[in-house]
Every structure is written in structure tokens, then in C-alpha cells.
Amino acid sequence: MSDHSSAGASIIIADFVNIDAAGKVNIIGGGIQFLGFDPDTGMSAPFSLFVSVTVSIPAFDSTQAVVEVALVDTDGRPVSVPASEGPNVLHFKQQVDFRHTMAPNMQPPPMGFPGCSNVVLNFPGGLPLPTGSTYEWVVMLDGARLSSSTFFVPGIADGQ
């Protein structure tokens, strides 16, 4: 997909997100800007990330694109977290086909009707993110930045 001017993305950080069998998104506790932290475990609170990428599909030669979701710090550098196999950069990448899949004998939507791809990332155990830091989830389409969502992980205030 070469023209990203007709593409958009939205990101919601929530307590829990899933997509049901009918394709509907269920969001509980959406709109998190301050992600809790458990000092006993060194982990953030559990959370989910919902990303929706929408593109207009006129007469594109290709209806496929690469959707990427990355966690970056305030300087735009990728965030890595410790893992048993070594540091793990939080960067997810997937080839997506935005064409509509229709059941047989169903009328397809008109040309130009937006195609959509929904991504849910669940972190049921949280992430080992340092406190007192601001982070940003960034969504890209074929390497072009579409949207972002910023959050903060507060810790215990000094002198408390």
C-alpha cells in the first residue's frame, strides 16, 4: 500500500480487551494514562492494548501493508524489557490484508469502503517497566507513523 494519507489508527490502553467471535471489541477500563506498579514484583499492573488501523481501499494495486506496534521511550528509542533469553524489545509486526472477507452470496461493500485491522496485545502479568518514566505506544503502517498513545508509570514519590 503506497498512499498512507487515507490511513488512520487509534490506540486504547485498558485493563482488559478482547475481540469476540462476531468481531466486536470488548474494552474494560479503557483510557489508561497512568499505569500502576507493584513494587513487590517490580512489574506494572496488568493491562491490554487495543489498536485499530483503518485504511480507505479505493483501487490500490495492493491491499496489504505491514502494521507495527512499538513501545518507545520519550526520546523515541525502542524499549526493551528483561527476559530469560535476554533483553526483549517490545515491537510487534504483522502483514495485514485490508480487503473485506465476505460470506458467500453476501454483497461486498462499495469501493472505497474502509478496511480495518484490529490488534489486541494483552500483558496479564504487566511489564517490568521502570517507574517515574513516560512511554509511548506507536502504530506504524509500512513504516509510516500513524498514531501514538502516551502513558506514565508512577512510583513512590521521594520523601514518602
Helix content: under 10%
SS field, number of helical segments: 0
CATH topology grouping:
Immunoglobulin-like
| Sequence of secondary-structure elements | EEEEEEEEEEEEE
Quick one: overall form? elongated
DSSP strand (E) fraction? over 45%
Distance between the termini: 53 Å
Provide the CATH architecture.
Sandwich
Q: Strands across the major sheet, in which order?
A: 10-7-12-13
Architecture overview:
With 160 residues, the protein is mainly beta. It has a single domain, classed as Immunoglobulin-like, CATH 2.60.40. It contains no helices and 13 strands. A four-stranded antiparallel beta sheet has the order 10-7-12-13, with no helix packed on it. Strand 8 and strand 9 form a beta hairpin. The radius of gyration is 18 Å and the shape is elongated. The chain starts with 6 loop residues before the first strand and ends in a 7-residue tail after the last strand. The mean pLDDT is 88.
Sum this structure up briefly.
The protein is mainly β. The protein contains no helices and 13 strands.
